[in-house]
Amino acid sequence: PEHPPEHHCIFCAIVAGRAPAHIVLENDLVAAFLDINPVTPGHVLIVPKRHAASLADLTFIENASVFQAGKDIASALRSSGLQCEGINYFVADGAAAFQEVFHFHLHVFPRYRGDSFRI
Ligand code: 5GP
Ligand code: ZN
């Protein structure tokens, strides 16, 4: 994905390798990396490589690839040593919904009975 230099998007920078991130999955269409401020340990963000602000802007194949990656990461989390009891899949769409980075991302994070996360 090519962007003009004036296009400042932290997730585009991560996808392009211009900003650091712990990448956990990457293919032609999507990248997934650890959230810098995890709500629980193992919190992953999955993004389309092409800049798109919201779910409505994704193509059919980007949408499928993002959610397939979500399933694959959930499977990896369940078989990791984290021993999670559940998983949240979460999308903030729009500032009023607490979207802070306007490059679409699917949050995937493990849950534990009694953990402190509340929407
Ligand atoms: P939103 O509220 O837009 O759904 O969530 C944005 C998420 O991106 C937050 O969970 C935040 O911690 C994460 N985030 C923001 N900046 C960075 C960054 O530079 N690197 C990484 N890995 N995560 C980030
Ligand atoms: Zn972007």
TrEMBL record:
Task: Name the EC number(s).
Answer: 2.1.1.-
Q: Where are the coiled-coil regions?
A: none
Q: Which UniProt keywords apply?
A: Methyltransferase, Transferase
- Locus of motif Histidine triad motif: 103-107
Q: Which GO terms describe its molecular function?
A: methyltransferase activity
Q: Which residues form the active site?
A: 105
Primary enzyme class? transferase
Any one of the GO BP annotations = methylation
Indicate the segments forming the HIT domain, all copies: 10-118
What is the protein named? HIT family protein
Q: Which organism is it from?
A: Microbaculum marinum
**Parent-record interval covered:** 7 to 125 of 159
